[in-house]
Amino acid sequence: MGLSLGSSRNLVTTATMILRTERNQRTAGVATVPFEFDSLGPKRTQLHSLSMGFAVLTLLFSGLSGCAPSTEDQISSRATIESTPTTTPPTTSDRSVAQETASTCGPWQRDALQRPISEQLLALNRGDFAAARDQASPSFKAVVDTQGFEEMVRSGFPFLLDQSPAAFGRCRITNDTASVEVRFRARSPIALVYFLVRTQDEWWIEGASPAADSVTGRAETS
User: What is the C-alpha separation between 137 and 202, in angstroms, rounded?
Assistant: First the structure.
């Protein structure tokens, strides 16, 4: 079948249009892809919401698990409590030992402690420093002679030479040592604490020092 030149041009033009139509369809198909994805937008929103909810649940679970103590922590705390030592009250024997090592003075003990102090004060009132020194302990007399004792009294305790009235206060005995409070009614009231030691069942004056107040930790009411 023969074709004219005009027919041939029409066929080329028709083929070209068909090709353009197919290309447009393919292009249109590609362009429809976003519309297809857009149609999936609600599903994606649902998935996003589900993922966010799962993340919140995960955070809540981790927070609750962080607040609750683990089994190891509970065991550790219990072990610490169980290992804490408990105190028990002392037995009768322990109390008796404590009373023997540190106790207040009984009537006969007070008389035994006051005797050397009274003898020394009477000797000082007479100005007899040798007799006053005789009431001191052997360790004191080993380092302080009569002259040194007189200088000590005149410089540090001159009120002992004024014949000021004295009153015995509280006393305490700890094993072979004791302390006695003595108050002197001088122009300004003064209190001394005498320290005594027991040697061969006799109490001797070891020394004396002014009390910070009328009561000291080493002298208590008997």
Answer: 10
